[in-house]
Amino acid sequence: MSAAAEGKRRDLGTPQPSDRNIRLIAELERKALEDRTVADRWSDVVTRLTGNGVFATGNVVLFALWILVNTTGFGGITPFDPFPFNFLTFVVSLEAIFLAIFVLMSQNRMTRTADKRAHLDLQVDLLAEQELTTMLQMLHALCAKLGVEVTVNDDQMQALLNETDVHELASALDDRLPSK
To answer: Helix axis angle, 86-146 relative to 154-161, nearest 10°?
Structure first.
C-alpha cells in the first residue's frame, strides 16, 4: 500500500494494529507512573532536577565562588571557610550522599519496571511460540491429509512441531554462554 493510500486509510478512521499496541503500551506506562510511591516520585524529581547540565554548571559556579570568596575575600565577603575548605567538603559530601541515594532509588524502581516488562515480554513470546507451534501442527496435519509433500528435514520439522521447553533452553544457554 502506498504512503498516500496509507494516509487516506488512517484519515477514514480505520484503526491500525499498531494503534492498539501504542495505546496499550501508553496505558502500561501511565499505570507504572501512577503506581510509584511518594519516595519513588520524590527520587524521580530529584534525579530529574539534578541530572542535567544546568545543575552541574550551577555546582561548578557555586564551588568556584565559594573557593574564590574563601581564598581572596572576593566581593568584600569575609572568608568563612578557609583552606582546606572543611565546610565545603562537608556540604559536597552531604550532597553526594543524598544524590547517590536518590539515584539508586530511581534506578531500583527502573530496574523493577524493566523486570516487569521483561516478564511480560517473555509471557507474550511464550504465547506466540505456542500459537505458532499449534498453527504449524495444524498446517502439517492439513498437508498430510491432502497428500502435500513437504520437502523439509524431518528432524527439523519434528523439532518445530514440539512445544519449546523453556527450562531446557535456559539450561542450554547457561551451559553455552560465557561466564563473567
So the answer is: 120
pLDDT in tens, 154-170: 788 788 888 888 888 88
Residue 54 shares a structural domain with residue 113: yes
pLDDT tens digits, 109-150: 999 999 999 999 999 999 999 999 999 999 989 998 999 987
C-alpha grid cell, residue 159: 523439532
The alpha helices in 36-85, defined as continuous H runs, are 38-50, 53-72
Same domain, 67 and 82: yes
Q: pTM for the complete prediction?
A: 0.68
Full residue range of the structural domain in which residue 142 is found: 126-180
Please, which residues have CB within 8 angstroms of residue 142's CB and are 6 or more apart in sequence?
Answer: 148
How many domains, the chain? 3
Single out the residue in 99, 117, 135 at which a domain terminates. Answer: 117
Residue 84 has pLDDT above 90, yes or no: yes
Amino acid at site 6: E
Mean per-residue pLDDT, 77-85: 94
